[in-house]
Amino acid sequence: MFIVEIIVCIITGYLLGSVSFGYIIGKDAGIDIRESGSGNIGTTNALRTLGKKAGLLTFLGDFLKAFIPAFLARYISANVIGDGDELAYLLSLITGLATVMGHNFPVWMHFKGGKGIAVTSGVTVAIAYEHWEYILTALIIFIIIVVITRYVSVGSLCVPAWALPVYAIIFKRDNTYFPVILIISFVFTVLAVIMHRENIKRLINGTENKLFSKK
User: Fold this and answer.
1) Residue 27 in this model has a pLDDT that exceeds 90
2) Is the pLDDT of residue 129 over 70?
3) Measuring CA to CA, which residue among 191, 130, 143 is closest to residue 165?
4) Percent of the chain with pLDDT strictly greater than 70
5) Domain extents for the chain?
């Protein structure tokens, strides 16, 4: 039964993650976001290319497509199937990772997707909602970093990318599946770094575009 649950979580998460809201919103405006700005289908490029409203809608779409399945996976596992909260948390994390993989590598877009930060944020809120102070602290730190540096990529690499492993270390050390949870949580971090590799290069070279830059 556990294997079946994992398979269902992975398939569901990946398919939902593959829904690219930046691309859909851009197409509705007559623009292929993959051919504009940085070519990325995520929130930042949607904001720069399509405007604030499109950027916000893209973020909400990407956030919710991760939050909803991750939250439901945990709720159904713990309250409907009766797996217990420890296993339910693990299944929620697996669902979230599958969603990020779908977003970053959507099969219907030739595996060229976004960078997964909004999606990772949705997963984080879905599985850490009972510790709202942690989520609020992470959000404040992210905003401060972006405001000071004006680099969304720096804020993303400093906060959302590390939110899940740090949360696991602080709050899930007593979970029976902690070693697996920690490994999966770090996969989110590794994916974020890999997807931001070009941003990292530009940051080192001093050519990274700042938020609201006219360049």
Assistant:
1) no
2) yes
3) 191
4) 98
5) 2-205
Nearest to 163 by CA among 205, 135, 133: 135
Nearest Cα to 115, choosing from 5, 195, 20, 19? 195
pTM, to two decimals: 0.92
CA distance 56 to 46: 9
> In whole angstroms, what is the distance from residue 145 CA to residue 169 CA?
23
- Return the closest-CA partner of residue 18 out of 97, 91, 93, 108: 108
Report pLDDT digits (tens) over 37-65: 777 888 888 888 888 898 899 999 999 99
- Cα dihedral 43, 11, 128, 71 sign: positive
Q: What is the pLDDT of residues 136-145, one digit of tens each?
A: 999 999 999 9
Give the pLDDT score at 32.
85
Cβ–Cβ < 8 Å for 42, 55: no
Q: Which of 55, 68, 69 is nearest to 26 (CA)?
A: 55
Q: Quick one: which of 171, 154, 136 has its CA closest to 208?
A: 154
